[in-house]
Each structure stands twice: as C-alpha cells, then as structure tokens.
Design brief:
Elements (H helix, E strand, L loop, with lengths): L12 E8 L4 E7 L1 H13 L6 H19 L5 E10 L2 E9 L4 E7 L9 E9 L5 E7 L4 H13 L3 E7 L2 E7 L5 H6 L2 H4 L2 H4 L2 E11 L5 H14 L1 H5 L4 E5 L6 E5 H13 L1
Parallel strand pairs: 5-10
Antiparallel strand pairs: 1-2, 1-10, 2-9, 3-4, 3-6, 4-5, 6-7, 8-9, 11-12
Helix pairs in contact: 7-9
C-alpha cells in the first residue's frame, strides 16, 4: 500500500498523560493499533522481513519507547539500542518529541554474542550535548528491560501494564511518590485505575511513524565520495542499494542520478 493511500484514521498513536493525585505517579496510556499498522506498512513498502520472535520484541520495544517519549519534555530527542542475547538481535529506536515522531528497526545479522544484554540510551535536550546511559541485563522482555533501565539509570520506578488488545500503560514515579502503592498494587487493580484513584489530565500527544530519511539526504551523504572516488563507490555497477540505518528503508541510487546531483551542487 503506497503511503498516499494510508487511512489517517488508523495512523499513529494518541497518548494520554495523566497524574495520579496523592500518589505522585505519571500515567501514559494508549492504543497502539494505528502505530503497529504504520510499522507493518513500512515493512511492506520496503520489502523488509522480520522473524516472528523479532517482530514481537520490536513491537514491545516500540510500545515501551513511545510511552517513554510521551512522558518526557517536548524538547527531547531520544535513541535506544537494545542488544538481546535470546534471541540474538539488536533493536534500535529513535524519537523526536518536537514533531512527535518515532521510528526504528531490527538488526538480526552480525549481532555480537555476550554473557548479557546491553541497553544504550542517548538523549539530547535542546542544545545540550548528548547524554548516554548504559545498563546490562541478564534477559527478559523489552518491558522488563526498560523497567530495569528506570531503576538502574533514572533511579526511579516504572511499570508497564497490558490493558488488553493493543492498549498499554506506563506508570512512572515522581518526587514524593507513594512507592508502596506503585510497587504493590496488582496489575488487575491498575487496570481499574480510573475507578480507584483521582486522575488529573495533563496532555495528549499523537506520535507518528516517521524517520525522515529521503533520497535527497542520501545523495548529500554520498556526494563527497562521488567527487573523490566515483569508480570505487559504484565498483562497476550502475546503481547502489542502501538501507537506512535508522528505519531499514531501502533506497536505490543510480550513478546517473548522483552525477547529476553533484553537478548541480558544484554549479551553486
């Protein structure tokens, strides 16, 4: 299905953030059906295939990541790389809270084997330099891994709750949080949060699947090499097939197109 024919009514995810009064807990909640549809359409558009185990892990990671982004300031850009050892794969996720976009991909080949998994978080807020956090983990689901990241790196509590279907909730502790309530309340009780607690609405954000990669950006990256070593770049072929490192999208660049691009740049 071409992007122009996608139904905007089932595109992206609308996330609602609320604050649990007297508990000092932030709740972000959403139905991820639309975002999952966008993810699958992205795979189809670019002829990408993911193994079933990897697909489930990526969807959980995408859910955890997007709920996390929605709980963060608007001027943040976030990237996660999660190395799983069972199954052996890497999940990359990136988000920009300005335009409220998320993207990502799975790496199932040439993944380093180790005794434990690794989680990398890179955060840029405004004009500040990149802040990186790293934790190791023995295993577990993406939700469990992110909960470990909160405990070890952010030094606060996070809980993910599956509400049924494609609906998920993230609860995160804030200063003076009622930690006993957050850690001991059962999942069934948290699924009835509206009935049990006083919730104050904060905001709603709509996140869409968007990487921002384009033919024009790829041409700009290839232009310097084209000027210095065009034969080495194309190695006797008339075109290059490239995959975006952020979302896996496939791009075809012909030598003729790149020559024309370089010529137009040099004129200017």
């Amino acid at each position: 299905m071409p992007p122009s024919s996608r139904d905007p009514e089932i595109s992206g995810v609308r996330i609602e953030s609320r604050f649990v009064r007297y508990r000092n807990v932030l709740v972000t909640e959403a139905d991820f059906t639309g975002l999952f549809v966008d993810y699958y359409l992205h795979l189809v558009d670019h002829g990408l295939q993911v193994q079933p185990d990897g697909d489930d892990i990526f969807k959980q990671g995408l859910t955890a990541f997007t709920l996390h982004c929605a709980s963060r300031p608007r001027n943040e850009m976030v990237a996660w790389t999660i190395n799983f050892q069972t199954p052996l794969l890497n999940v990359f996720l990136a988000g920009d809270n300005g335009p409220s976009t998320v993207t990502g991909r799975i790496f199932e080949e040439n993944v380093r084997e180790a005794d434990h998994g690794l989680f990398f978080s890179d955060v840029v807020r405004g004009r500040s330099p990149v802040h990186r956090s790293t934790i190791s983990f023995p295993g577990g689901s993406p939700f469990q891994v992110v909960e470990s990241y909160y405990r070890q790196s952010e030094q606060r509590i996070a809980r993910f709750i599956h509400l049924g279907g494609d609906r998920f909730m993230l609860l995160t502790s804030h200063p003076d949080c009622d930690l006993n309530w957050l850690t001991r309340t059962t999942e069934d009780e948290l699924r009835e949060l509206d009935k049990r607690e006083t919730l104050a609405p904060i905001e709603r954000r709509t996140y869409s699947w968007s990487c921002g990669c384009s033919q024009q950006k790829i041409l700009k990256v290839l232009a310097p090499t084209m000027r210095s070593d065009p034969d080495g770049l194309f190695a006797g072929d008339e075109s290059l097939r490239l995959n975006c490192p952020r979302c896996g999208a496939r791009h075809l660049v012909t030598r003729e197109t790149l020559e024309a691009f370089v010529a137009s740049q040099d004129k200017n």
